[in-house]
Amino acid sequence: MPEVKVLGIDEDDAVMKAAHAIGEALAKTTEIPVPSAPSEIALYGQQRLSFIVLDLDEYRKQSKK
User: Rounded distance, CA 52 to CA 16, Å?
Assistant: First the structure.
């Protein structure tokens, strides 16, 4: 999700914020993008790759409350 960029005080915080930001972005569309293969993602300097798990149906239910 190129439009999603987050910062956290630590990795757990950043992953939590990323899941929320991705949920918000995907909840607004019916077109779900195909995930990139990890080997296709270029990392620079101290960057690390983290996997974000999101149940979009559950996110949509929770965000309506």
Answer: 8
